[in-house]
């Protein structure tokens, strides 16, 4: 099982972040000795972070050190980590940044609760509610009409990453499929570090990496990025191509859940979404497959 070993992952993460940096972009004195490996040297990271070279070596070799928040902040600055990568670094080290806001008591990640009603109220905009594993726990008819009938799937397949990577019916749905998968894996890695004891999440990652060489390659890159908004180019099965802008909202009372909303990016795409909405509003013949309400929380 692909469970988190924080010490080994911290070591590997620091190495990959060091190796991606270009020495010419850093405020370092010129060195004449040729470089045998990509990126910064360990002594250069140590100099930038204000720690000893031996300390950096021991961190990268996974010798069980637990850096303080101050050292983590210094390393994040030296390695030019993004905000998402910085949060990932702190999660791996089992530390929290200074002035971390107090978390409110949240409902279980698998419970849609009142947010299921909000998902319904967002119609005709396609919307769905995900937990930190990317499980789809509530959706409206427009989102199901745009993608597929989530209610007809086994519960273990109602996962946006699984559907994107492994569901045969969605192989051509994402016209920028490689980018969507890459961004999704970077987002999933952040969730993996924040929930190291979540065996269901670890099993999902195992299934994705063993079932797809592409996912296994992208997972090994250790990219970390939480996606709050963006644009996706899609191909609907009957209505044709469209482009949507998406927003990802995290409720304050349930930060492990994400409300995802799609909006048309151009007039042609709006016509496609309007056609999908009209199809969803049409009466469903009694006994038809997939007639189960898509608004029911899972």
UniProtKB/TrEMBL annotation:
Signal peptide: none annotated. Transmembrane segments: none annotated. Residues 39-86 form the HTH cro/C1-type domain. The lineage of its organism: Bacteria, Bacillati, Actinomycetota, Actinomycetes, Streptosporangiales. Coiled coil: none annotated. One of its GO terms (molecular function) is DNA binding. Pfam families: HTH_31, MLTR_LBD. This is Helix-turn-helix domain-containing protein.
């Amino acid at each position: 099982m692909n469970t988190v070993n924080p010490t080994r992952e911290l070591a590997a993460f620091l190495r990959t972040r060091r190796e991606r940096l270009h020495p010419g972009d850093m405020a370092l004195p010129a060195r004449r000795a040729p470089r045998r490996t990509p990126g910064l040297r360990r002594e250069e990271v140590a100099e930038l972070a204000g720690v000893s070279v031996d300390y950096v070596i021991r961190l990268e070799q996974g010798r069980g050190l637990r850096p303080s928040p101050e050292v983590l902040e210094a390393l994040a600055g030296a390695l030019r980590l993004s905000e998402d990568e910085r949060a990932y670094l702190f999660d791996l080290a089992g530390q929290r940044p200074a002035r971390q806001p107090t978390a409110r008591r949240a409902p279980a990640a698998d419970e849609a609760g009142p947010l299921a009603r909000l998902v319904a109220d967002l119609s005709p905009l396609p919307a769905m509610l995900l937990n930190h594993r990317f499980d789809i726990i509530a959706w409206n008819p427009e989102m199901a009409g745009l993608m597929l009938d989530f209610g007809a799937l086994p519960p273990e397949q109602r996962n946006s990453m699984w559907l994107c990577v492994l569901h045969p019916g969605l192989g051509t749905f994402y016209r920028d499929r490689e980018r969507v998968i890459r961004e999704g894996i970077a987002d999933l890695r952040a969730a993996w570090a924040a929930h190291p004891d979540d065996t269901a999440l670890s099993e999902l990652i195992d299934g994705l990496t063993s079932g797809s060489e592409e996912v296994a390659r992208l997972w090994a890159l250790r990219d970390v990025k939480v996606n709050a908004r963006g644009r996706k180019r899609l191909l609907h099965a009957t209505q044709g191509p469209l482009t949507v802008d998406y927003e990802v909202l995290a409720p304050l009372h349930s930060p492990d859940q994400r409300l995802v909303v799609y909006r048309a990016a151009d007039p042609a795409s709006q016509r496609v979404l309007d056609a999908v909405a009209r199809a969803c509003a049409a009466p469903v013949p009694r006994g038809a497959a997939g007639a189960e309400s898509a608004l029911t929380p899972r």
